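Repro:
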Amino acid sequence: MGKVTEHADEADYPSAVYSWYVVGVLTLTYTVSFIDRQIMALMIEPIKRDLAITDTQVSLLIGLAFAVFYTLLGIPIARLADRHSRRVVIAAGVTIWCVMTALCGLARNYTQLFVARIGVGVGEAALSPSALSMLSDYFPKRTRGRAVAVYNTGITLGTGLAMIVGGQLVERISNAPPVMLPVVGELFAWQTMFILVGLPGLVMAILMVTVREPKRRERLPTAEGESQHLALKTVLLFLGSRFRMYGTHFLGMSTVAILAYGLFAWIPTMFVRTWGWSIGDVGLAYGCVTLAAGPLAAVLASVLGERLSARGHEDAQMRAALISVCIGIVGAIGAALSPTPWMAVLMLLPASVGTTAATASGLSALMTVTPNQMRAQASACYYLVVNLLGLTLGPTGIAIFTDYVFKDSGALRYSVASVSALAGIFAAVFLTLNLKHYRKEFVESQSWSTALGERG
């Protein structure tokens, strides 16, 4: 079987300058999505007070309302992305989630706010499967990991900004007077915040006009040698026939998500309960750590992946994910068990860098071994598993340890350490098992490029 040379493989791709412009637009869009997603977690108390709801009801707004529809609708939306213009799918999604975030600010009761949060999840479901598929067509395999790593910094950028801004708001929002608007009427401070956060994001939908739909590459050919659009059933059969690789990949990355979402949910409260910090102080410190972690994780993921690849490792990206998550585990456990708050802040940096870099490497690896015309649907399946497990077992697992194992709210730090250790063990096991199966699928994926290169 002949090989396509590196130059032949990269010659037909768009210019590097424009490709990185696209990365910038998609990363900024991802950042906006995480600001809209995370901001509610830091406005819990005023929302509870003004709507007279319980902690459980608030948790359903943060988790169930967003996560279930975000994950389940990701697959049908991804089918559109695999068959039609991905930039149009993204622009529509951005418009939906920004409008629905603003509508959260107009909600007059719990039901209306729940429905608005569902809408936020529906809109955000359109972004990542489409964006990852586009990036795979803008960048060759050699540099694709770097592009995906940069895109993935949107998580830390969005979360960091939400922490810093939201943390300061929580300090002031309880005593802020209501705002009166024409037609709409009286708004509470948290409602105003939803509107101010949601509407500016519509600029990103407009910016998608400047992003060109790239030529689809590395498509799985039919028996007649032509590439084809694939039904969801075909995609599921493809994934199922390679269940050892995709199964260990999805489960390994799910445990990374459990660790990351658990930290996002409980680190602020851990500082409050353990060291008596205010939400404003925690938000500022953790937000700065998260902002710094984004670019550092992008560098770590790309450098590890490219160096391992240069050494001839066909599983370079998955090896990079394994190394990165080990760094994240050490940081998370160290932060939870630190004797001082500032040492804990310092340990949060490797915790955030490691989990973010692992996620970026794992996503890049997934795109590499998945045929073009099923990448969006495959990544939607990935997000279905990863987000359902991560958003539920991460925050809830820590709460279960606090309530039923330690039975002491002051022992939250030990719950964080326990879940971090367990997630780390499972992540290491699943990702290590994945390496052998990934190498096999990587070799198969090379044959698609070779076949298409020979026909071209």
